[in-house]
Design goal:
By secondary structure, the protein is α/β, with parallel strands linked by helices. It contains ten helices and nine strands. The chain starts with 8 loop residues before the first strand and ends in a 7-residue tail after the last helix. The model has no long low-confidence stretch (mean pLDDT about 95).
């Protein structure tokens, strides 16, 4: 976008994914960083710049390390007010939210208000690759100017077939979405009841705060070696120092017995490592 909109200013949420940050840097555009989901700060930055300058607001729907959700409608209102484009990353939401699996914007009936929506064919769709959705003019521009697209080999036919099958299924079926949301709610409740430091939210992401990189790695190692459970420790620079955590994402096939075993294992490890549980 920076190549065809001279003077473009990008307004980026401070918790945007590293891939978005890299894309903004590679564009060479001016950028402004607004505090996470802080609408007042975003508006102050928009208002401070030249009203005639082209603008783009880049943000995510579900933030994968926090498990919280962006105020999409309010950001779209600001974009309308300040004549800005919008770029929404729905990577952690496509397939998992909305009546057709289009993401949070689909669930809230807001997809038509966004300029560009980014998604992935991994995660919920279970294959690999990614996509953007936008109007025909923007798609043609990106096809013509984006080196990341131009110089990338196309997906193989077998991957495309798998992705199409997944997308078609999840457009028609809500069983998996409903099952995942129910599993995530139960796991959060189990963690909270056990006194584990779960970060509560309304999404399928269940972060467990540790606050120490060495201990987060040690907990992950014990879970795998002794309990046969693999969970990734999330350390700096993915999250700020002092907020290291484990991140769980239960699926619709995880039943209560599995989640109870996990909760019991974590309580044992917390006790072994003399970590604090809530009263």
């Amino acid at each position: 976008m920076g190549k065809i909109l001279p003077g473009l200013i990008v307004y980026s949420d401070e918790l945007n994914h590293a891939s978005m940050i890299a894309g903004i840097r590679n564009s060479g555009c001016e950028k402004r960083i607004f505090r996470h989901n802080d609408l007042a700060h975003l508006e102050a930055l928009l208002a401070a710049d030249d009203a005639a300058a082209p603008k783009l607001i880049a943000f995510e729907s579900v933030y994968s390390m926090e498990g919280d959700v962006a105020p999409i409608a309010a950001i779209c209102d600001l974009a309308d007010k300040y004549n800005a484009l919008t770029y929404l990353d729905e990577v952690h939401a496509v397939g998992m939210y909305g009546p057709r699996g289009g993401g949070i914007s689909d669930a809230h009936g807001l997809a038509d208000r966004l300029t560009i929506i980014e998604g992935t064919l991994g995660k919920a769709f279970g294959v690999m690759g990614g996509y953007i959705a936008a109007d025909q003019v923007i798609i043609d521009v990106i096809r013509s100017y984006a080196p990341g697209f131009i110089f990338t080999t196309s997906l193989s036919p077998v991957l495309v077939a798998g992705a199409l099958a997944s997308v078609r299924h999840l457009k028609a079926s809500s069983v998996e979405r409903d099952g995942q949301q129910a599993a995530a709610a139960r796991l959060k409740a189990m963690f909270a009841d056990a006194g584990l430091p779960v970060m509560l939210g309304d999404t399928h992401i269940v972060p467990l705060m540790v606050g120490d990189p060495v201990k987060a790695k040690r907990i992950s190692d014990i879970l795998l070696a002794e309990y046969g459970v693999y969970v990734q420790p999330i350390n700096y620079p993915t999250v700020p120092r002092g907020t290291e955590r484990l991140r769980f994402t239960p699926g619709p096939a995880h039943d209560d017995a599995m989640m109870r075993e996990l909760t019991d294992a974590l309580v044992e490890i917390w006790d072994r490592m003399a970590l604090r549980l809530a009263a």
